[in-house]
Amino acid sequence: MDYKIATEKISKLVRPQSFPLGVKIVKKGETLPEDSVRPSKYDIKISLCQWTTMARRWGRNVGVLAEDINCTPCLAALGLKKLESENDFATYLLDMGYFKNLELAEKATKELDIPPSGEIDGIAMFPLDKAPVDPDIVLIYGTPAQMARLVSGYVYHFGELVESNTTGFGFSCLSALKPYWTGKPALVHPGRGERILGGTDEIEMCFTFPAKYLNKLLDGLEETHKKGTRYPIQSYILYQPPMIPHMKVLDNKLNTP
Fold it and tell me: Running DSSP on this structure, what letter comes out for residue 109?
């Protein structure tokens, strides 16, 4: 797969304002790509969304292991560290004030479908056109209109609707990586954590999908573009605006020179 050409096509047909990303899930026993920038280079620990922003806005190839992250909900949600009890995560959600009672927090925890701990060791992210390895996931940020354009490219070949499960408060790190486990694309609405810590803009969301579908998505984008589904969206302008009364008065005073 020529990821540089893929990036050029996405840039032409969707025009995202940040780099489309490739994401590599580092499985147990594997290592990060050699050129991955880790937080230790700057003598800090981070939330994963910060490094997502570094990859997509700074254009860096980045990577993290559990030891690089100090966002405890992220560590728990991705299974990078193991909880002592299944109820610990629900208790955290309740303590944060996200739910009225523990029963509701437990219900939401089950719906998050957290992957088993110990399955992965880390995450590498990189601008797609600089991919040092074949990615597992492609992650693209943009406006809702741009995300709709990407979805239209996907459904052209697959005919299935793209879903979005949103808490409203966070765990977009888990949502963005979910296609690795589900094999399906998703629309992600970043929560307050990513917008505070990662600097994700209010108007931004992202589309994430298994990298094995990239060729079909690109073809879907091109084919739907030919048929008129395009970005930027073409506002309909072939109509005559009405003339308000004051304009009519002025019109009566206009003469051909």
Answer: H
The whole-model pTM stands at 0.93
**Could you report the per-residue pLDDT of 117-148, keeping only the tens digit for each?**
999 999 999 999 999 999 999 999 999 999 99
Q: Residue 21 region, left (φ>0) first, then alpha (ψ -120 to 50), else beta? A: beta
The three-state secondary structure class of 161 is coil
Contact 16, 47 (CB under 8 A): no
Instruction: Kindly give, in sequence order, each residue whose CB lies less than 8 Å from that of residue 145, ignoring residues fewer than 6 positions away.
Output: 231, 232, 233
Instruction: Answer positive or negative: Cα dihedral of 227, 233, 234, 236.
Output: positive
- The encoded tokens of residue 76 equal 């728990």
Buried b (16+ CB within 10 A) or exposed e, 123-161: bbbbbbbbbbeebbbbbbbbbeebbbbbbbbbbbeeeee
E strand residue ranges, 128-211: 137-142, 186-188, 205-210
CA distances from 120 to 29, 43, 84 (A): 8, 24, 18
